[in-house]
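Notes for week 9. Today we move from apo structures to complexes. The key idea is that a small molecule is not decoration. When we ask for a structure prediction with phosphoenolpyruvate present, the ligand SMILES becomes part of the input, just like the chain. The input block below holds both the sequence and the ligand string. Read it once before you look at the output, and try to guess where the molecule might sit.
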Amino acid sequence: MIEITPVTSVTAEVNVPGSKSYTHRLLIAAALAEGRSTIENMLESEDTLLTLTALERMGVVTAVEGGRRVVNGTGGRLTAGDTIHLGNSGTSVRLLTAVAALTDGITVLTGTPRMQERPVADLLDGLRQIGVSAVSLAGNGCPPIQVDGAPLAGGVVNLKCGVSSQYLSGILLIAPLSADGVEIRILEGPVSKPYIDMTVDVMARLGIAVEREGYERFFVPGRQAYQAGDYRVETDISNASYFWAAAAVTGGRVKVRGVSRDSRQGDIRLLDCLERMGCAVHPDGDGIAVSGGRLTGISVDMSDIPDMVPTLGVVAAFADGVTEIQNVAHLRAKECDRLAAVATELSKMGIDARCTEDGLRIKGGVPQAAVIDTYNDHRIAMAFSVAGLKTQGVRILGEACVEKSFPTYWEAFGTLYVNAD
Ligand SMILES: O=C(O)C1=C[C@@H](OP(=O)(O)O)[C@@H](O)[C@H](O)C1
Ligand SMILES: C=C(OP(=O)(O)O)C(=O)O
């Protein structure tokens, strides 16, 4: 348990590690390329190391040289991984379930009890449409998943992405290695659209052509080769959010280095939300700064930026009026049921916060001291640590859960106090 010390104002500049989402994608794409690639600024966290280890179990040799991860890709020739444990890393499970289709035998992908409740049925259905043998061993549409790898023919997939965009990202990533190409028609959603753009971006950076009609239809020609090369992971904007929220909540000014407003990471749109609530956002040299102001509640559709809901929910607790967060039912399938978690923990702080059919309704007030349960969810821990900057007596239980995406979070959080009053 960690108790957060309030501050009266914050002036800070913060560095944040590489993007988790880009790290997963570049590791997989480099593994599917033929030959040596290097990845600079890779995020080294629990989840990304699970993906790395899984690829090594599938026969990909990696190393660290000069501070860069070296990946010796095998051109899609992968060996079955036996049983691979992937913790509670949804991105690892969904993307690697697709990658396992390329192996030469049976691979079982599993994870924590919570991971075994996170849905993959629509992904498995999509993979089966292109000839992949992929089943939920418990028959409940969740991990453990058994994939029987074989040469990937390709074909047409009618895919539901109303619960997760990761199903589409996984099938896109393996499609270039099919014989006949893969056409994907989206039946539901997709939610979390920016992550699809990040997938297509990484594929393009490694030389793969993806034809698309918006988010409704994608076609990836077969027999394409990912190009090995030297790649760099950009700063993680999801994890930058907590520091911008610190400025919003305290009225201070916090700059995050190494980020650009034209990033493909959708979570950059949190800045638009903070501006609408009354903050000022400034491009500042090599980064972006946020200055807090008097906060006013907003209504916002966050379907595309689900990971920002805990962050915005905490900021909303300090705003005048009501904040309505809409179109985020998929938050119930994350590391925890994040709608219930945010509503419960804000209610513990004396805030009128409740779940709606597809989101949250939060009436700002004066949050009170509370012991915050984090449900082993890194984003709950990091979001509520921000509340403690303004409210005396906020204690965070299970604070080590930040290892999932940001192992150095508490050290970075400490820099907020360097120039604080
Ligand atoms: O593809 C990715 O890297 C991610 C996609 C999102 O999940 P969904 O697409 O399931 O919403 C997001 O919540 C997750 O943190 C990372
Ligand atoms: C939901 C998240 O990641 P994943 O889907 O990989 O578990 C997250 O990082 O908030």
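The mean pLDDT is 97.
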